[in-house]
C-alpha cells in the first residue's frame, strides 16, 4: 500500500498539537516534519524542539526532512529528539560527510534517508543506495509549501526504483512537493511508494477520504 505522509508545514501553527493528534485517526502513515535553516533553503521551519515536543504526543512515524547546510552537525541530536526517519540532502555537504552523517543516523537505530533537489540528477543517490532506507525525490524547489508539482522529475523516480530493485534493496521512494491525488497517482505510476502532502492534505475537506485515495493508488 502507498503510504500517506502529511507535511505539518501546512498545519495550523498555533494549533499544532490538535493538528498532529488528528493525523492517526484519519489513517496517516508518517508525519513529515520539515526542518529549514534559512541557509540551505530561503526559509525557516521547525527544529529540534519541535521534534522533541511531538514525540510524546504521537505513535506515528516521525519522518524528519532536514533542509539544512552540513547536516552532519545535527543528525545525532535529531535522532535523540525522536526522529524515526531522518533525511538529509545530498547537496548539503561533501560526499565524505554525507556517508558519515548517514552512518551516524543508522548507528542511532534511526532509518536514514537521502533527498535530491530538482536540479540534482538521480545518479547522485547511487553511491549511498545501500546505506539508506528511503530516497526522497523533491518535486518542487525545497523551502515552501503550496508550489506546483514538477512532473519532469518522474524519470528520476523510475530510475531510482529500478536501481533499488536491481540491487535487491528494500528502500522506500518518497516524493515531496505539490502532491495531491492526481499528481500522487503520477508518482506512484513512476515508482514512488511514500507520498508527502502538505497543502493538499490540510485543505482537504475530508482528510480520511484524501488519505484513503492515496492509499488506493498503489492498488490501481
Ligand atoms: C517543501 C517541503 C514540503 C512541503 C510540501 O520544501 O519539503 O514537505 O511541506 O508542501 P506541498 O505539499 O504544499 O507542496
Ligand atoms: Zn519536506
Strand line-up across the major sheet: 1-9-8-7-6-5-4-2-3
- Class from secondary-structure proportions: alpha/beta
In this entry the ligands are:
D-xylitol-5-phosphate, zinc ion
| Shape label | globular
Order of helices and strands: EHEEHEHEHEEHEHEHH
Pfam families: Ribul_P_3_epim
Cofactor: Fe(2+); Co(2+); a divalent metal cation; Mn(2+)
GO molecular function: D-ribulose-phosphate 3-epimerase activity; metal ion binding
Binding site for substrate: 7, 65, 143-146, 176-178, 198-199
Structure description:
Pfam families: Ribul_P_3_epim (PF00834). Its EC number is 5.1.3.1. The chain has 220 residues and is α/β, with parallel strands linked by helices. Helix content is 33%, strand content 21%. It has 8 helices and 9 strands. It has helices at residues 16-21, 48-54, 75-81, 95-107, 154-166, 181-190, 199-203, 207-217; strands at residues 3-6, 30-37, 44-45, 61-67, 85-89, 111-116, 134-138, 172-176, 194-197. It has a 9-stranded mixed β-sheet. The longest helix is centred in the middle third of the chain and has 13 residues, at 95-107. The N and C termini lie close together (10 Å). 46% of the residues are buried. The structure holds D-xylitol-5-phosphate and zinc ion. D-xylitol-5-phosphate is lined by residues 7, 9-10, 32, 34, 65, 140, 142-147, 176-179, 196-200.
Brief overview:
It is built from eight helices and nine strands. It is an alpha/beta fold and about 220 residues long.
Secondary structure layout:
Blueprint: E1 3-6, H1 16-21, E2 30-37, E3 44-45, H2 48-54, E4 61-67, H3 75-81, E5 85-89, H4 95-107, E6 111-116, E7 134-138, H5 154-166, E8 172-176, H6 181-190, E9 194-197, H7 199-203, H8 207-217
Parallel strand pairs: 1-9, 2-4, 4-5, 5-6, 6-7, 7-8, 8-9
Antiparallel strand pairs: 2-3
Helix pairs in contact: 2-3, 6-8
Bound molecules: D-xylitol-5-phosphate and zinc ion.
Amino acid at each position: 500500500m502507498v503510504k500517506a505522509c502529511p507535511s505539518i508545514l501546512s498545519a495550523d501553527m498555533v494549533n499544532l498539537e490538535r493538528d498532529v493528534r488528528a493525523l492517526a485517526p484519519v489513517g496517516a502513515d508518517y508525519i513529515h516534519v520539515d526542518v529549514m535553516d534559512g541557509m540551505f533553503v530561503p526559509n525557516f521551519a521547525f527544529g529540534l524542539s519541535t521534534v522533541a515536543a511531538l514525540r510524546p504526543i504521537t505513535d506515528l512515524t516521525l519522518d524528519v526532512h532536514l533542509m539544512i547546510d552540513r547536516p552532519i552537525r545535527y543528525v545525532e541530536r535529531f535522532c535523540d529528539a525522536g526522529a524515526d526517519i531522518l533525511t538529509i540532502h545530498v547537496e548539503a555537504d561533501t560526499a565524505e560527510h554525507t556517508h558519515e552523517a548517514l552512518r551516524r543516523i543508522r548507528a542511532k537505530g534511526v532509518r536514514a534517508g537521502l533527498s535530491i533537489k530538482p536540479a540534482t540528477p538521480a545518479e547522485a543517490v547511487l553511491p549511498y543506495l545501500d546505506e539508506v532506507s528511503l530516497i526522497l525525490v523533491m518535486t518542487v524547489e525545497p523551502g515552501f509549501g503550496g508550489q506546483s508539482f514538477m512532473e519532469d522529475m518522474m524519470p528520476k523516480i523510475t530510475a531510482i526504483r529500478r536501481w533499488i530493485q536491481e540491487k535487491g534493496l528494500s528502500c522506500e521512494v518518497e516524493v515531496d512537493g505539490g502532491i495531491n491525488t492526481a499528481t500522487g497517482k503520477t508518482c506512484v505510476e513512476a515508482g514512488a511508494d511514500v507520498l508527502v502532502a502538505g497543502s493538499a492534505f490540510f485543505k482537504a475537506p475530508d482528510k480520511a477520504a484524501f488519505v484513503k485515495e492515496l492509499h488506493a493508488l498503489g492498488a490501481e
